[in-house]
Design brief:
- The chain is mainly α.
- 70% of the residues lie in helices and 0% in strands.
- α2 (45-66) packs antiparallel against α4.
- The protein is rod-shaped.
- Mean pLDDT is 78; it is low at 21-37.
């Protein structure tokens, strides 16, 4: 089974091959979200849950080795951090969807404006009523 870091790297490689890199650091330093060189857009909510599961397993292992009291002190901080990360990932996905929609709407308006300009030029060439306005 692939670890989360490997999944993120595989997803990035696939998107770069398709020309869809959404990470400003992609191709520069080769980093991903799990080694600090990535971008929040490289993560999904599923990735956050997988990271949480991996951290839970690691905390259990450390608790067995060094005592549950040692691990218990950091668990609330880790949980809080993961909750914040999940919120940020979800918010990024929503904002990205809004941005794509706004870009599409801007393209439609631009196309309509270009068509109107072309129509006005044709009318002016013919000497129609739009030539006087």
């Amino acid at each position: 089974e692939l670890h989360t870091k490997q999944k993120v790297q595989l997803r990035r490689a696939k998107s770069e091959a398709a020309g869809e890199s959404n990470s400003p650091s992609a191709g520069k330093n080769g980093g991903d979200a799990t080694d600090g060189g990535g971008h929040i857009g490289d993560l999904s909510s599923t990735d956050v849950f997988e990271i949480a599961a991996e951290l839970s397993s690691e905390c259990a292992r450390l608790g067995n080795r060094f005592g549950q009291d040692t691990v218990a002190k950091i668990v609330p901080y880790v949980v809080r951090l993961l909750e914040e990360l999940e919120f940020a990932v979800d918010r990024f996905e929503l904002l990205t969807a809004d941005l794509v929609e706004a870009q599409h709407e801007a393209d439609v308006v631009r196309d309509e404006r270009d068509l109107e300009r072309a129509f006005r030029r044709k009318v002016e060439e013919v000497g129609g009523p739009a030539a006087q306005s």
